[in-house]
Design a protein that fits this description.
By secondary structure, the chain is α/β, with parallel strands linked by helices. The protein has 14 helices and 18 strands. The strands form four sheets. The chain has a seven-stranded mixed sheet with strand order 12-13-14-11-10-15-16, with helices on both faces. Strands 7-6-5-8-9-17 form a six-stranded mixed sheet, with helices on both faces. The protein binds NADP nicotinamide-adenine-dinucleotide phosphate and magnesium ion.
């Protein structure tokens, strides 16, 4: 039995489009076609595979306005963000377009012959995408997977399928052969779960909640299926008294409220050294109140709505601690929430410990370096974080002390397509992006050739 889903614009609550969902039989069909396409895609000469990926990148660039507009309408992303996201897909494709000719093996000294290694593609790779960054997260999986010679089946989140569907069409326009890159809108429990159970899917790339990630890990064990997990976060923005407090305060709203806080890297814990607390809060309040929450179509918008009524209610339930101050938000239709700053009573409070995934941040004081590190590490998560200090030695000590995958010092930016990204602890397994991501889309084969 086939189903469908009404995509809602979160800024207006209007229905944008009805999207048909694949059922189990249709999912099996696409997976089998992707497995057939793998037999020819893996044989495509490296230079030709590279050319096709460059062509795909160019076609995405040619359609960046259209893709961005789709994301604004489907996901409520601000225009500036949506343009960055479309460009991120093109850039990620272009970066990995350089890979096919550079998938080097090794030649290892042995007696009696030659020993070489090959990086073989895995087969069909299943990419499962969440709703918060539909375009970039999809490409972080499919670009290196395709470059390494795999074919891809990709399931967008139910809420946000529109850009993924369009990317599937653009791949064909770019000349990527039929069956190589397949987009399958549908339910996580049907399409996503079939990626886990279908023996022809050799690897799963999952980005989403830690709870679903654990279920997928259990499921993948049955076939010892390769798996990359990018899960939740509860990252710290640590501000030492010797830092440029004004700069740290000016950047702190964007570090957590960007994409309405629906960002696994959101710095949703702010730790401020006691002697700088008043100074920081004064500047931070000005910055939060100036943060522009408005129609995401506007060039000036810094934050749009949250994705759904369900997410809105969930995020609201965290506002049960003393509120320091709030920003503003439009009224009327749409899932609008004002940026909210909480002062939790202690480190056991829900808002301090749980990933909220909305525009809510919690602030606490610390006394010294050791306490800052201990507070940041007091979490099952470890994805990103920021450290603000003018002391280079302290910056190094604290960054080495925090159990997290992507840190920035005197900055809040930690995602670049050419540097590795991923989590410690329950924030994930494996790394995406950067030069080494190809290792997780290939299997090493060792071949000994005798002199005889
Ligand atoms: P989610 O519920 O875990 O869903 C993520 C994806 O998995 C969706 O496509 C979903 O499909 C699918 N899915 C759900 N149940 C499944 C199952 N049993 N088997 C296979 N697939 C299944 O997460 P979300 O609510 O979309 O996103 C929010 C969460 O994602 C947050 O916790 C956030 O931190 C995390 N996240 C992490 C990163 C990162 O890079 N570390 C990035 C983004 C988001 P449906 O849409 O049909 O439910
Ligand atoms: Mg979910």
């Amino acid at each position: 039995m086939s189903t469908s889903y009404d995509v809602i614009n979160p800024a207006t609550e209007q229905i944008v489009k009805n999207v048909a969902h694949l059922d189990l039989a249709a999912t099996n069909d696409v997976i089998e076609k992707a497995a057939q396409a793998f037999q020819t895609w893996r044989q495509v000469a490296p230079g030709e595979r590279a050319r096709l990926l460059r062509s795909f990148s160019q076609v995405v660039t040619d359609h960046r306005e259209e893709l961005a507009q789709l994301e604004i309408t489907n996901s409520g992303h601000t225009r500036a963000n949506a343009m960055w996201e479309a460009d991120n897909v093109a850039n990620t494709l272009m970066y990995y377009a350089a890979a096919p000719e550079r998938l080097f093996g090794r030649q290892i000294p042995v007696a009696g012959g030659v020993d070489v290694t090959f990086k073989e593609p895995l087969g069909v790779v299943g990419v499962i995408v969440p709703w918060n960054f539909p375009m970039p997260i999809a490409s972080w999986g499919f670009a290196p997977a395709l470059a390494a010679g795999n074919t891809v089946v990709l399931k967008p989140a139910e809420y946000t399928p529109l850009t993924a569907i369009r990317l599937g069409e653009l791949a064909l326009i770019a000349g990527i052969p039929q069956g190589v890159f397949n987009v399958l809108p549908g339910k996580g429990s049907v399409v996503g779960n079939r990626f886990v159970t279908h023996p022809l899917v050799r690897k799963v790339v999952f980005t989403g909640s830690t709870s679903v990630g654990k279920q997928i890990m259990i499921g993948c064990a049955d076939q010892v299926k390769r798996l990359t997990l990018e899960l939740g976060g509860k990252s710290s923005n640590i501000i030492f008294a010797d830092a440029d407090i004004e700069k740290a305060a000016a950047g702190a709203p964007g570090a957590v409220f960007d994409n309405a806080g629906q960002d696994c890297c959101a710095r949703s814990r702010i730790l401020v050294q006691r002697s700088a607390f008043d100074r920081f809060m004064e500047s931070f309040e000005i910055a939060v109140k100036a943060f522009r929450v408005e129609d995401p179509n506007l060039d000036t918008a810094q934050m749009g709505p949250v994705i759904s009524k369900r997410q809105f209610d969930l995020v609201e339930s965290y506002v049960d601690e003393p509120v320091a101050f709030k920003g503003s938000a439009p009224s009327g239709p749409g899932y609008w929430m004002a940026p909210t700053v909480l002062l939790p009573k202690n480190t056991q409070s829900r808002s301090w410990r749980e990933e909220i995934f909305g525009p809510v941040v919690s602030v606490m004081v610390f006394e010294d370096e050791a306490q800052a590190i201990a507070m940041a590490n007091d979490s099952e998560y470890g994805l990103s974080g920021s450290i603000w200090t003018r002391d280079v030695g302290r910056a190094l000590r604290v960054s080495r002390g925090i159990d997290t995958g992507a840190l920035s010092i005197n900055s809040n930016s930690s995602v670049r397509f050419w540097t590795p990204f991923g989590g410690f602890k329950q924030s994930g397994l494996g790394r995406e992006l950067g030069p080494d991501a190809l290792d997780s889309f290939t299997e090493v084969k060792n071949v000994f050739i005798s002199n005889d």
